Amino acid sequence: MADKRRFELFAALIAERFPAAHRVFDVAGGMGKLNLALTKLGREVTTFDLRHKRAPTVRYAERRFTLEEPCAADLVVGMHPDGATRIIIEYAAKHRIPFAVVPCCSDNGMPYNPWMRHLAELGRDRGFGIEEARLAMEGRARVIVGVPRPG
To answer: pTM of whole model > 0.85?
Structure first.
């Protein structure tokens, strides 16, 4: 069973690591629970997802997130974004903004630990300093944090 605190825990980590990031894109954000948690912390969040069912008070873009999305964010994030994990890193690289993602599974059938190594390497190859953090929760709790390297 998924840890019900995951959204608040991830939002707290985001706020701590990126205090100046006020505009956030939440990719594959489901019903918008991370959006709600980040909004409570003073962030302006747009959640991208194809779901029709969602929290009524969140800013929501009911569409697939692509590299062509105009960049109106200081940070791009994903909490268990399934097949959108790689696009978060690619988008952040294209626009030279930081990212934070909590992968749950790969979009290519790769086992979890090799998938995590692959994502970290993808970030490094795209010019990011990569760190890993862990949320204090059960389940997939490893966070990959990427900050663009200077130059």
So the answer is: yes
Q: Helix, strand, or coil here: 146?
A: strand
Rounded to an integer, what distance in angstroms lies between the CA atom of residue 135 and that of residue 80?
13
Taking only the tens place, the pLDDT of each residue in 66-81 is 999 999 999 999 999 9
CA–CA gap between residue 109 and residue 93 (Å, rounded): 24
Which regions of the chain does DSSP assign to beta strands (E)? 23-27, 44-48, 59-61, 75-79, 99-102, 128-134, 142-148
Among 118, 112, 72, which residue's Cα sits nearest to residue 91? 72
Please name each of the domains of the chain with its CATH number. Answer: 6-148 (3.40.50.150)
